[in-house]
Amino acid sequence: MAFNAIQHTAITDTTFNLNTASGHLSEVANTSNTTMNTALSELKADPNNPAKLANFQAAMNEWSVVMNLIATVQKAMKDSMSSIVQKM
């Protein structure tokens, strides 16, 4: 398996809310998770293959970036919502 980065698509929805953010990030997270699990399975089958190790490391890095992005977006939205509620 050659490592394939996640294909990025432009968001054409002009409304941004928690549901749209969650939906788009969920798709990316699922793709990243699948890529990482596939790379791990291939590494388990041949742990001495440097190419498979590199693919797994790249998949892990991508997964880490995606999870950090999700956490950052969730925290920013939580902070925004808390600020709005506080000012009511």
From TrEMBL:
Q: Name one GO biological process term.
A: protein secretion by the type III secretion system
Write down the superkingdom of origin: Bacteria
In its keyword annotation, does this UniProt entry include rRNA-binding? Answer: no
Q: Might you report a single GO cellular component term?
A: extracellular region
Q: Name one Pfam family in it.
A: T3SS_needle_F
Does the keyword section mention Glycoprotein?
no
Q: Where in the cell is it found?
A: Cell surface; Secreted
Q: Which UniProt keywords apply?
A: Protein transport, Secreted, Transport, Virulence
Please give the family membership noted in the entry: Belongs to the SctF family.
What protein am I looking at?
EscF/YscF/HrpA family type III secretion system needle major subunit
Source organism of this protein record? Motilimonas pumila
